Structure formats: C-alpha cells, structure tokens
Prior knowledge:
By secondary structure, chain A is an alpha/beta fold.
Amino acid sequence: MRNFLKALFVLALCVFSFSCSQASKQENVVVIYVSADRPFSEPVLQAFEKKAGIVVKAVYDTEETKSTGLANRLLAEKDNPQADVFWSGESVRTLILKKNGVLTAYKSPSAEPIAPTFKDPQGYWTGFSARCRVILYNTNLVKKAEAPKSIYDLTDSKWKGKITISDPRFGTMSFHATALFTALGDDKAIEFFRKLKQNDVKVSPSNSDVRRLVENGEVALGLTDTDDANTAIVSGKPVALVYPDEQGMGTPFMPNMVSLIAGGPNPENGKKLIDFLVSPEAEEMLAKSEAVQIPLHPSVPLRANVPKISDLKPLQVDYATVASRLEEVIKILQPILNL
Amino acid sequence: MHSPRWIFVVTGILFLGITALPVCLMFVESFRTADGFSLANYASLLTSSRQRELLSNSLVLALATASLATLFGAPLGFFLAKLSLPSRHLWRTTLMIPLLIPPYILGIAWIFAGDLLAKGLTRWTFSLPGAVAILSLSCLPIPMLVAEAALSGVPARLEEAAWLAAGWRRTLVSITLPLVLPSLVAGFLLVFILALAEFSVPSLLRVRVFATEVYTQFAAFFDFGSATAATMPLLLLVLVLSICVRLLVGEKWITTRRSPAASPLLLSGGWTVAGMALFSVMILGSVLPLFCLVMKMSPVETLIRSAWGTRESIAASLMLSASVALLSVAMGLLLGYWRARTQARLKALADVLWILLFTLPGTVLGIGLVRLWNRPLTNALYGTWAMLLLGLLARFVPIAALLLAAGVRQMPASLEEAALVHGSSWWRAFIGILVPSMKRSLLAVGLLVFILAFGELAITILLIPAGTSTLPLQIFTTITNSPDEVMATLCLLQVLVILITLFAVGMSVGKSRAQLSKLPA
Lengths: 339, 521
C-alpha cells in the first residue's frame, strides 16, 4: 500500500510538471473550438493540418450539449482569448458571441461564391455546409403516400401521441422554433406549438433521441436534422425523411458557421483555417461524410439522393433576428410545452 | 490537539483559493446587471409557481434516491465488511459497476432493456419512479463503499461482548450503528446532492426538475449571472437538509478506543447466506444494464479498434483521475482532520461550506475558475493540464473532506495523544498511526473520487487544454450523432477501462495485505 501511494504521488508530480511545461512550447499552431459533431469535423481539421502544415489544437463539444458548451467558454475567456477560430454547427451561438464582442470580422476570399444569405454582411461569420430541419418517419408505421409534407401535418389528430420533437430550449430545435416565430409571427407559431401539445407530442432531450424513437417505432414521426436522419438511413433503419414545406413556407436551413475570435493568439493561422473550412474542398468532405451536409458552393459535387441547395426552398429568416428572439421564444414555449 | 496549526492554515487557504474564490466571483457577478447592483436575477426564483413545482419534483427525486440508495447500499457495505469473503475486492468492484456507468448512459441502457425484455418496462422507465430507480441504482455503490469502510473500522471486541449478551439486533442498533452513523449520513448527503443536481437522467426520462433551470440559463441564454442565481434554491434545499441532519444526528456518536491492529467482527452461517442472496440480487441489477449495452454493441473488433484509437485519451483520463484522487484524499484528510479535532466554533460552518460547494454545478465553478485564472499573468498555468487538475480538485476536495471528517471522527484521539506523550511528533503520529488506521476509508474515498473525476464533463469541457481530450469527453462528442451500436460500444469501453483499473488496484492492495499478514509479529 505504501509503495502504491508513493507511486501515485510521483505520478501526480509528473503530471503537474508535464502539464506546466506544455505551455511554454512554441509551435506553428491554430486553436479552434468546435461545437459541431466530432466524427464529421475532426477529419476536416486533420486534412487542413496535413495540407497547411499548421498544428490544429481543437477542443470539441456538440451543439446538442446539455453542459455549458464552448460558447460559454469563449464568453468567459473574452478578456484573454485562448482560441483563434470558432466552428459552430448552428447559428444561435455564433450570433450571441458576436453580440457580446467575442468575434472579429474576417471575409474569406474562399467564401466568394457562397450566397450572401449565408454570410454576415460585416464578416463576423461565414456559413458553409448546411443541414436542414426535416421530418423523419418510420417506414413500417407510415406509408410513403401518407408521409407528412409539412410541419403542420404533425398536428393532425391521426398522429396523436406518435410524434416527437427535441427540446426547443437547446440545439437546432431552438433555432427551428425561433425561426418559426420570426417567419410566421407569434400568433401562428404559438397556435402551432399549442396544437402539437394537444396532439401529445413527446419532447425528447436531443435530436439523436428523436432519431432513436422514430427508428425504434416508438413514434411514427419526428422533427430532426439531416445528419441525424442520414445516420439512421445509412445504418439501414426503417426510416425515411421529408424536406417539409417545400410548397409552402420553406425548409429551415442551418449552415455551419465559422468565425475569427477577437484577440486570438494566432490570427493569421486562424484566417488560413477559415479559408480552408469555407472552401469547396472542405464542403466536399462534409458532403461525402455520414452527415451528408449540403454544400453552399455550387461547384461541389453531391451524393445521390442529396438535393442541391438550389433545388430546395429555404425558410426565409434573418439569422441575427432569430438569435435575438431566442430567449423570448423559450419563455413563451416553456408553459405551452410544459418544459 | 497538539498539531502544528500552520499546516491547516496553509491547506485552508489553498482550499479557499481553489474552490471558494472562483465561486464568490460568480455570486458577486450574479448581483450585477447593466444597471449596477440588483436582485433582478433572484427576483422570480422562489415566487414563480412553475419553479416551485420543479423544486418540489427535485426534492422528491433526491430524497427518494438517497433513501433507496442508502437502504440497499448500507446492507451491502455491511456484508462486504462483515463476511469472510475470498477476493473481497472482486465482489466490491462488481457491485460498483453502476457507479462506473455515466447516469445518462445507465438511463439509455435501461431503455434498451425495455426494448429487449418488455415494452411495459420502457413505459415505466419514463416516469419519476423510473428516474428514482435508475439514479438509486447508479448511486447505490456510494453508501455501500462508505458503510464498508466505516464498518471495517469497528473492532471486533466491541461487538462480540454485546452480541453474546444482548443479541445481534440490539448490538447493531446500540453499538454498530452509532459508530458508523456519521459516515452513513455523509454518504446519504452525497447521494442527495448528486441526485438533486442531476439533469441528464431526468431530462432523458422526461421528468421535469429544477436542475434544468441552471442548464437553461447557461446553455440557452448564456447568462452567467442568472445561471449562478438559479443555483440558489438548490443550495437552500441542501442547507436545510444539512441542518436537519445535524440536529438529528449531531456529534453525539463518535469514537472508540480502537487499536489499529484490531480486526472487525466477521460473521458466518446464516449471515453468509443472507449476504450472498443480497449480493446476487444487486449484481443482477448492476450487470443487467451492462448486459444490455453488450447486446447492443458492435462486434468486438470495433471495441478493440476504439480502444486503440482512444489510447491517448484513456492514458490522459487515468493519469488525471489518479492525480485528482490522490491529491483530493491528501487535502481532504487534512481538512477533515481539522474538522474532526478542532474545538473552534467554525467547524460546523466547514461542513456547510463543503456541502454547498459540492452542490454547485460544475459549470458555475468552471466558469468562475476561467474568470479567475485566465489572465496574462497566469498564462503559464491556464490552458495546461494543471489548470484542469485544479478545477477537478476544486470539484472533489469538498466531498473528500466531508467523508474523511466522518472517518476521522471514528478514530479515537487518545491514540495520537498516547504517541505524543511518548515523545512522537504530531506529524509522525499522523502518518504512522492515523493514516494506517484509516486506510480503508482513504481507499474508499480515493476510489470514489477517481470514478467521479474520470466521468466528469462540465468542468473538463471548460478547462481542457486545446488539442487534448479525456476519454469521456471524446466519447461524449462522438456518440451524439452515432448509431446505438456505436454508443453502446464506446460506453462499454469507458466502463471496462475503469473496471480493469479498479481490479488492478484491488489486487495490488490485496497482495500488500497478504504480504503484511505473513510478516512476523
């Protein structure tokens, strides 16, 4: 026992010494905080590392996180930034950081062909590789002919107790809910969510839980993201997806967003990383991954069964306006959905 | 007490600097708004009917979980301490399996169990009783470990005489229970706090609890002031419970004239049968979720490939958790010793402070640490593993101190005093008499901190150096968008890493004891 304790003590000293020594090493590095799923983002960063010869030091999180998330870390580090770049899987976090003065403007030349809708006019963020909000349905429970075509179909009484959405306080559902309030107006949006509640909607903790419930047949329909939906499809689960409201208000688009951190330690390397992330090369990698993210560069080739951005009708919203209304919308929805 | 005061002053200052200072920073900020000093962040907390309902759900969940976990965990600890078991560490480690599985994954495993066994089970899982059952199973090893450590310290001669004269019931109630009550109460409080602050399991099972409010403020509104203020009802609940416990239990039941060489009373016969029956039921409950993960997992080759692919994270997690456990036990023992031995009136405040600090969500502590340490002057420290080590110490030293204070209270001061009278220094008496006497408690607390530190995420995400990862963080950021098979495989990997480590530690400790027992008297 004594030898064991001695060994542990020496180990602790080694860890402490090693950890302090790491801080003093100088390298050609760039530090990125990534709030996008690691299986998809890590290979892209590794490709940049190989191509540019710059060491990428990443901290990962997910946009579904129920912990603080890296956005909070960036806010807390604002007075002495440690990161150079922030990659977010959705828009709300990025815009909150912009509002709090964490970001600085950088317009990447690689993003020139990307439509202005997906870029901040002042250059505080650039969108790339979008996902959509989709309706995922279980093909054993729902025939293709009766598959819903609009989110309003989820309020149909024939689906009572057989629908699910993820918690609208977090992740991409928070964007989706706020976007509906912005696009439809408060009255119509409130009516929609009230009808969902009357239809016994199950509120799941996350999009992956929505996927699980649908693929297991516990519910027939669910609102989720394209990458969650495609994970289930690629795994051979009995599911299919619908891009909702293509004939109506449009499908919510959620581009990844990348931003330069104000006062970051390696700004030039940060710019090079952003140039790579918003390039056709990175978008092609994300399009070919299991996330099947939709490229915003028109020139990037697509996988089969993945629509082009130009073939889809996006829900018309201003991302900054959506982000600014988030808190207000959450407070409206809490009593309606009994959150 | 003839101890050198300076050592406790230095430890106390270090502890307050690491833990209390960043928390104070966060609470000061919670009283600040754009208009200056304000109570706006606190205004609606206790007046809103919705939040009162959430608070009441949380209280029921936490009390029921702590009660059930102690009701089943304490007897398990009793049998682990009292039965003459071959390979005791194997039994102990197997019974600890639920603690090794992150609660969220345990919840998913039980949902998988519903898929495999009966749909009715799944429906029941999504309820407050379901959440209580899952959290109780998850936390049950805590009172078990604490009870075993405390009962192992009760010398046989105290119970033998009473057993012969008054029977086992009276002995347990009048002799054994008072001796171990402080430790059991500390274990109960720990489970209460863990259940009260737990968010992921109630969220998964669609049970509305107050912990959600804190996370909503951080993860949805990014409002540090409101998030810190939102912890206040949780802290008040824990404070009220602590005061009730103190009024009921107090400091009445304390110590023995225990000799460090004395062994505990061992039982046999019908007790062995009863013990084995309880072990079997609990092992079934422990192993079932593991079994469900195994049934869902990908082929074994995937597990091996995942282990190889995450080897750096595994090594980092093991080194970090071992360091946190060792340093938490060292610091916790000094603080606990002061608490148990001091006559100062501040000692009751120490219990309250430790409990409240541990109740605080890791997020509040983590952001406070970032705010305090992320400065140009401390750049050499911030952004390194040392910073994460400090953060985890801040998180777990309070609970180590609380549990070890209870352990020290079981040890008679007369042993150290006798050594001092015979010319020994205080330090020599501390290391040579107290520490060996408390080795089971130290090991139990060390293992507990190791397991909790290994699975910790909230502080890790905030303080981990860029370009590195721990195993739970790597798994967490990988499983969110992965099929169930991948999730099950990675979770099993985490459980196996800790299990193998615990088996290795158990065997090492067992071998040391065997060698010691062979030494001539």
